[in-house]
Amino acid sequence: MSVCPYECTANASREIPFMTKTRTISVARGDGIGPEIMDACLHVLSEAGAAIKPKFIEIGDKVYLRGHTAGIAEDTWDILRDCKVFYKAPITTPQGEGYKSLNVTIRKTLSLYANVRPAVSYHPFVPIKHPQMDVVVIRENEEDLYAGIEHQQTTEVVQCLKLISRPGCERISQYAFEYARTYGRKKVTCMTKDNIMKITDGLFHKVFDEVASGYPDIESEHWIIDIGTAKLADTPEDFDVVVLPNLYGDIVSDMLGQIAGSVGLSPSANIGDNYAMFEAIHGSAPRHAGKDIANPSGLLLAGVMMLVHIGQPDVAERVHNAWLKTIEDGIYTYDLARKVKGTGIKRYREVSTSDFSRVVAANIGRKPEHLKPVHYIGRVANFQKPKLTNVRNSEMQLDGVDVFVRNSKLSADELGEKLGQIAEPEFRLIMITNRGQKVYPGGLPETFCTDHWRCRFQPPKESACTTNADIRSLLKRIEQRNIEWIKLENLYLINGKQGYTLGQGQ
Ligand code: NAD
Questions:
Q1: Which terminus of the chain has fewer CB atoms gathered within 10 Å of its CB, N or C?
Q2: Residue 354 — very low, low, confident or very high, per pLDDT cuts 50/70/90?
Q3: Which atom of ligand 1 is nearest to the CA of 279?
Q4: Residue 505 counted as domain residue
């Protein structure tokens, strides 16, 4: 049975009279288990005295099916922009091509660049292999492979662009250190794969080091993502705050959420300079919808993060401590009850979603006796706004071009000879690679080649400059030889420094 204290229809709201200035927030009850867990959370927040006025909006499944491929109607954006703070239950993304992920759309449209995902052990009340785990993942939320720019390049090869920007790296690294300082954390760890992706992940790492030097009170370190993830899974207690590019952050935070005991426990905050969105990390779990059994904890703890964000740390503290007390009293929804069955934990009670929220509400004002109580008062997130370096005036000098061609007739040597003959006078053919591996000059017959070739042309003399006109005349000569070029990448020197990688084996 619903416990929602507000009238949950679009744009309806109930103001709660409190001393603190009431804050209007937009609220989406979502799909699947969304409405029942959102009602449970709003009940707890209301009982704890949250001075919030929800403005309910409709997004997700029904909106997708009405023909909005992004899952949100145009006029809903105005509400999100007016309220600035969004409390969101999970939504269902319809299967099939053409539907865009609404989460990604909201994060990018509102520039919610920092995704904060704590993963905490509630040992011994929630079984966990890592009783000391207390990690906060700070995931870059807008860039990387999530730009969603993908193309079929040739019949055999498809491509996804990985975009990393200096402002993006500066904002997320500064956020991670500001977070660590505000919440009394000791260390920030960065993870990338910059031994392979030297320019994209390399920039993320480089900026992290630059930012770290401005926070000498906080320890900093860098791990290569593969071994770093293995270490995180094995000894999460060795980590504190972890800052990651988008894709690695997504994977690592889900892994830690699972390690913590249930995906139903983990909250997530999406923070930008002007807007913020708070949600659980899990989805709409359609199989459990309408049964009043889902765990509302992830969404409730996201509500706690929201209360800190809007300057109600006292209420946040009351809710969080009441929730900790409930967990240590062994009041569990089905997911945790199933987890403790067969373990040493004997005293527990399995309850419904709505009963769980009633118990948490009844515990408002109480503190946990075994788990560590939380303290938010005095820790209001008052982060420094990001300071961005202006690099737009850097000198960019064109130093050649990579011409990508589709070819399934000529061998690497034949293609190389043909292109070599037409490179002059502006260029010489430096090399040809296939899937990044150098195959001309001096390739091996064993290397497997697709129909997608990258041909690098640079000026014959090192000092010579390339112009766009030079590239246009090169392309004309390539076309005259019936070679099909499919795309170009300009090669630049940035302030005299190479802004491109060499081919594998070059
Ligand atoms: P899911 O997270 O919804 O559910 C996977 C499983 O996890 C469930 O079957 C259930 O066993 C468990 N689970 C999840 N939340 C739980 C909770 N609160 N309490 C107890 N158990 C819980 O993942 P899915 O099934 O892959 O995705 C379902 C839908 O949700 C998809 O349409 C997906 O696109 C969407 N989704 C939305 C969000 C979001 O809105 N933020 C995030 C992820 C997935």
A1: N
A2: very high
A3: 41
A4: no
How close is the Cα of 283 to the center of ligand 1, in Å? 3
Which pLDDT tens digit goes with each residue over 429-483? Answer: 999 999 999 999 999 989 999 999 999 999 997 767 889 999 999 999 999 999 9
Residues 127-177: tens digit of each pLDDT? 899 999 999 999 999 999 988 899 999 999 999 999 999 999 999 999 999
Which ranges of 282-348 does DSSP label H, i.e. alpha helix? 297-309, 313-328, 334-340
103, 1: one domain: yes
Q: Is residue 413 part of a domain?
A: yes
Ligand 1, atom nearest to 268 Cα: 41
Domains: count for the chain: 2
Residues 327 and 408 reside in one and the same domain:
no
User: How do residues 233-267 score in pLDDT, each as one tens digit?
Assistant: 999 999 999 999 999 999 999 999 889 888 899 99
Q: Spell out the alpha helix ranges (H) of 353-467.
A: 353-362, 412-423
Distance (angstroms) between ligand 1 centre and the Cα of 288 equals 9
Parent domain of 467: 396-498
Domain harbouring 5, CATH code: 3.40.718.10
For the chain, how are helix, strand and coil distributed in percent, rounded to 5? 35, 20, 45
Which of 64, 107, 112, 284 to probe ligand 1 with, by most ligand atoms within 8 A of CB? 284
Ligand 1 atom nearest to CA at 33? 18
Give residue 57 CA to ligand 1 midpoint distance, Å: 21
What residues are in contact with ligand 1 under a 6 Å CB criterion?
33, 90-93, 103, 263-264, 279, 282-287, 294-295, 335
* Residue to mutate (ligand 1; options 263, 265, 270, 293; most atoms within 8 A of CB): 263
Judge whether 301 lies within some domain: yes
Nearest CA to ligand 1 atom 41: 90
Question: In this structure, what is the dihedral angle of CA atoms 247, 252, 257, 258, given to the nearest 10 degrees?
Answer: 110
Q: In this structure, which residue's CA is closest to atom 39 in ligand 1?
A: 90
The separation between the first and the last C-alpha atoms of the chain, rounded to the nearest angstrom, is 67
Residue carrying the six token digits 């909005």: 68
Look at ligand 1, atom 44, and give the residue with the nearest C-alpha. 283
| Side-chain-side CA neighbours of residue 467 (13 Å) | 4
Q: From the CA of 297, give the closest atom in ligand 1.
A: 18
d(CA 20, CA 288): 37
Q: Which two tokens stand for residue 398?
A: 């064109």
Residues 6+ apart with CB under 8 A from 465: 397, 398, 459
